[in-house]
Every structure is written in structure tokens, then in C-alpha cells.
Amino acid sequence: MQEQELISEIQALFARTGKSDLLVPNGDDGAVFRADQKVIACADVAVEGVHFNINWSSFFGVGRKITAANLADICAMGGWPKFLLVTLVLPAKYLAGALEIAKGIAHEADLVGAQVIGGDLSSGNELSISITAIGETEKPLLRSGAKVGDLVLVSDLPGLSAAGLSLLRKNLSADSDLAKKAITQHKSPTLNYEKYRNAYKSLNCAMDVSDGLVRDAGHIADASGVQIDLRSEALASSELRELDSSNFMEWVLGGGEDHVLLGSASAPIPGFVVIGKVLAGSGVTLDGKEIRTAGYSHSWS
After folding, report:
1. Span 121-148, pLDDT tens digits
2. Residue numbers in the chain where pLDDT is lower than 70
3. How many CB atoms are closer than 10 A to CB 91?
4. How does strand 80-90 pair with strand 32-33?
5. Taking the alpha carbons of 246, 250, 252, 257 in that order, is the dihedral positive or negative?
6. Which of 119, 8, 136, 23 lies closest to 66, judged by CA?
7. What are the φ and ψ backbone dihedral angles of 262, each rounded to 5 degrees?
8. Phi, psi (5° rounding) for residue 142?
């Protein structure tokens, strides 16, 4: 199959109608759209062997996973996704999976009404997908908005994806509904985008938990010039205790890629879990004591 043939098939899959603010759709050197509010732009890349393993993930699931990561970033900024630009580096051995990746991207984008409006396609030795997401917001939510006295909240307790990855790496069978849920969440997380949107007006700050709760809470602490004190009692209520009663807190504190929404607010938010408080000071603590957990960080050493 030649490049233009594959591009034509993918363009047909991504074609959508009814967006009055899309003036020039996919097909030219660039798309043109009209923005009526503040624009948010973010990008994420997923590389085979680093962000996903095609031996245990489907092409459809990989497409969903990288799309969810981008949509979650837009939502963490207090916005709503509108458009996506997708760049795909496709090894010849995965040619048959290209449309399944595109279907996974389209599936996740449809959950928020977003549309793919362009991108690029190249051959290469490793499968990688890069997505730029564009959204709109009336008022951006920033990491720097946490205030002393705020409650620290999450849309759901994190750790499911890390638990699923642990099960997959150990080649353990999913012998319970919770184990199946964890593995599914790692392969392609399911996010409650509407829950995030409903909380915007109540949040003082927010960010997407992608690299681990402690590491990402540290970003809020640094940006806001405060201390984030997490409470073990709230975190220990995680259902992951059923999978590993000794080590589940490592998943909760250090696991990433669940893409739950972490933030602070002056009062509880329906559907969110209160996991701590914003104090005067710096850094992240657990029950008032210094905490060290790796989380995830890329390394070139």
C-alpha cells in the first residue's frame, strides 16, 4: 500500500461534519478553524516499548490510550477538547494495524466531540504516535492556583494502571474482576470527562496525574509555593488493597497513566475524593512526614 492510499483511508475515517468553527477541514496543507474562546494546545507522544507494548495491547487500545492522555491534559487546564492533530510513524510490519489505531483515536475523540483535522504519516523502525490536542476554555485552571487551607482532591484514587502494568509484566492471569479492570485501565484508560468538566468552577488548581500522584502533587506544590500534605487514611481506602495488601500504596502514590484529575478546592466536590490539605510550606508530605516515591520520569542515562 502506498502512503496516499493509507492517508485517504484514514482521512475518510476521521471525516466529521457539523462543526461550524472548522473552516477548512483535513486535506489541505493545514486545517483552519475559528476560536471563540481562549485556546489550549498540548501534545503527547507514545513510543512502542516505552508507553505501550503491542504484545499485550491491541492497536485500537493504543490509539485510545494516547488520545486519552491528550484529552486529559486539555481537561486538566479547565478546557474542553475541540480538535486533534495526529502524527504516526508506522513500521511496515504494523501496516495492517494502522486503521485500527485510527479507529481507537476516533473512538476516544468522539467521547468529547473532538475531531482529527490533520497530521502526518511516516514509515519508520518503531511505532510511535504523537497527538497535538487543541481545546477552548473560558478560564484556564493552572497548577499555581492552590491556596493554603484548600482541600486536595482527586476525581478517583489512582494506581489502577500501575497495578495492571505490574500484572502484565509478571504474566499473571486476571483471575478477578479487579485484576481485569486494572489491566484494562493500563492498556486504554477509561476517563470520566464530564466529571472533570462539572468540577471546573469549584477547583482552584488542577493537573492530570500521568507520572504518579506524589510526583504530580509536587508540581502543584512547586508552582503554587505551598505544601501538599496527603493523608494515608484516604489513600488506603483504594480497592487495590485487594490485589496486594502489602504493596498497593506504591501503585497509589507512584503509579501513573490513570489520568485522574488532581486539584485543590475550598470545599468538597461531589464525586471527588478528598486526599489531603494544602499547607504553608513546600513539597509533598504523607501524614506530615516527608515521602519519597519515584513516580515516572524519562531518563537518557
Report:
1. 999 999 999 999 999 999 999 999 999 9
2. 1-3, 16-19, 293-301
3. 14
4. unpaired
5. negative
6. 119
7. -110, 135
8. -115, 160
| Confidence at residue 72, expressed as pLDDT on a 0 to 100 scale | 97
* Highest CATH level, class, for 3-137: alpha beta
Cell numbers describing residue 36: 471563540
Residues in the chain: 301
Helices 98-110, 59-76: axis angle to 10 degrees equals: 30
Query: What's the topology of domain 143-290?
Result: Phosphoribosyl-aminoimidazole Synthetase; Chain A, domain 2 (3.90.650)
Tell the residue number behind the cell numbers 486536595, with chain if given: 152
Cβ neighbours, 10 Å, residue 13: 13
Break the chain into its structural domains and give their ranges: 3-137, 143-290
Strand-strand pairing, 80-90 and 115-123: parallel
Q: What cell was used for 81?
A: 477538547
Alpha carbon distance 301, 298 (integer Å): 9
